[in-house]
Specification:
Strand order of the largest sheet: 6-7-8-3-9-10
Strand content: 25-35%
Number of helices: 11
Bound molecules: adenosine-5'-triphosphate, magnesium ion
Distance between the termini: 28 Å
CATH architecture of the largest domain: 3-Layer(aba) Sandwich
CATH superfamily of the largest domain: P-loop containing nucleotide triphosphate hydrolases
Number of domains: 2
CATH class of the largest domain: Alpha Beta
Structural class: alpha/beta
Length: 311
Amino acid sequence: MPVVHVQHLRKEYESITAVNGLCLHLDEGDIFGFIGPNGAGKTTTIKMLATLLRPTAGTATIGGHDILREPEAVRAIIGYMPDFFGVYDDIKVWEYLDFFAAAYKLPREKRARVVDDVLQLTDLTAKKDAYVEELSRGMKQRLCLAKTLVHDPQVLLLDEPASGLDPRARIEIKELLKELKRMGKTILISSHILPELADFCNKIGIIEKGELVISGGVQEILQQVAGGHVLEIRVLDDPQPAVAMLREVPSVRTAQVAEDHAIRVEFSGDAEAQHALLRTLLQRGIRVQSFSEQRTDLEDLFMRVTKGIVS
Ligand SMILES: Nc1ncnc2c1ncn2[C@@H]1O[C@H](COP(=O)(O)OP(=O)(O)OP(=O)(O)O)[C@@H](O)[C@H]1O
Ligand SMILES: [Mg+2]
C-alpha cells in the first residue's frame, strides 16, 4: 500500500482552479520532488495533504489514513514545513522546540532528549539558548525543519525548505535532507529548481496550472524530457573533426560547437554507451581534454514541457 496516495485532488478558489485532479502515489522511503513555477499549485496541494485546507473534490490517504475523515491520525504521522516561517519573539530555540514537542504530547521526561536530538540533527546545538529572532534565515529554516521532526514523523511535507537561502545554506539543508532520507522517511519536497532535487529524489512530478504534467522516476523523466543527456566535450585541437565523427554515432542526436568552443552533444545512450563514445573519440586520435555530462536545468525543462514536447 502506498504511504501517500493522492486521488483526484482538486481545489477551487473563487475564480480559479488551483489544483486540478491531481493523482500521485508514494511508497515508503520515496523522496518526491514536487516541481513547478510560481502559482502552479504546490503550496495548495501540500496544505491539503497537511489537512490544513479542505479539498473541493478528491482526497488522499497518508499512512492509510484519509485526510478528510481522519485528519488527527494524518497529523500524527506527518511533519509539515510551511513555505513561510512565522515570527516568534522572546522565545529561545530550545523552548520553541520544547513547545512543539509538548503540543505533540510527548511526555516531559522525553522532551529534553528529543529537543537535543533534533538540534543535533539540524546542526543547531550551539544555538540552543539563543533567541529565535537572533538566528539567520538559514538557521531559522533549519529550526523550522527541526520543529517538524520532534514527533518523529514517517512522512515529511516540505514546502520549499531551501528557498531564499545562499548556496552554502542550501547545501546544508540538502545534507540534512539526505540524512532524513537515510533515516527512511518518505518525503515530498517542493521547489522551483529541478537540479536542486534531481540528485536525491527518486521521483519527481512537474505541476503546471494545477495539473501534474509529468511524474515518475527521475532518470525516466530526464530522459523523456531532455531526450537523453547533454554531454559537454572539450578537445585540444579544432573541434570540427570531432563533431563530424560524433554525428555518425547513432545515439548522438545533435552535436555542435558552442560559443565557448565546447562541443555540446544531445545523447540518448546509457552509461555504457557514453563510455564507448569517449573511447571511440580517443581511439580515433581526438585529443579530448574533458568529457562531462551536463545537468538539465529547469528552465529548459519547463520550456520543453510547455512547448508540448512531452506527450
Ligand atoms: N487563499 C487563496 N485564495 C485565492 N487564490 C489562491 C489562494 N491561495 C492560492 N491561490 C491561487 O492558487 C494558485 C496556486 O497557488 P499556490 O500557492 O498553491 O502555488 P505555488 O505553486 O505554491 O506557487 P509558489 O511557487 O509561488 O509558492 C495561484 O493562482 C494562487 O494565486
Ligand atoms: Mg508555494
